[in-house]
């Protein structure tokens, strides 16, 4: 008689074992319950989510939006896909999430998923990728002061 199965042996270093119901959540599941793996990266010093909150609280919106001070509020500004596509570098980076266009130039170094990942939505509609990785993230709140305008129905 065999004393243990292969599955038991592979889990001997883990308690509770990886598939156990005692685990609050599997590390392969995101809070949204999707199967995208978690892959947060180490952020540079001074680039935590709290640092981002402090920066947005102390920086005027026109600076974060990257527009002249007298620019009308974002809901008055329509941005075409062509205009959006012109802002795709790290220093001049816009994306559209759920119909709103954000200037994320100042945010990219604060992104918990890393610069490389967030740059995949540079100059484009990033809604699909955004929802794929973290539909639960409150982008409206986090990037409120970075909103440049609304995406025009082309
Ligand atoms: C404006 C756009 C985006 C914002 C505001 C944003 C914000 C965030 C935030 C707040 C987190 C931490 C989530 C948490 O701790 O639960 C995060 C993690 C992450 N983001 Fe983004 N993100 C954006 C775009 C993207 C894009 C376009 C990608 C992929 C192409 C991406 C990939 C990831 C990944 C892989 C993580 C780590 C996920 C995890 O821990 O499970 N993000 N992002």
From TrEMBL:
The record's SMART domains line, in alphabetical order, gives: Cyt-b5
Positions with biased composition (Polar residues): 1-33
Q: What's in the keyword line of the UniProt record?
A: Heme, Iron, Metal-binding
Instruction: Give the Gene Ontology MF terms in alphabetical order.
Output: cytochrome-b5 reductase activity, acting on NAD(P)H; heme binding; metal ion binding
The residues the entry assigns to the signal sequence are none
- Membrane spanning stretches: none
Cytochrome b5 heme-binding domain location, by residue? 76-152
Region Disordered, annotated ranges: 1-52
> SUPFAM superfamilies in the record, alphabetically?
Cytochrome b5-like heme/steroid binding domain
User: What superkingdom does the record give?
Assistant: Eukaryota
One Gene Ontology cellular component annotation held by this UniProt entry: cytoplasm
Sequence similarity: Belongs to the cytochrome b5 family.
Q: What is this protein called?
A: Piso0_000282 protein
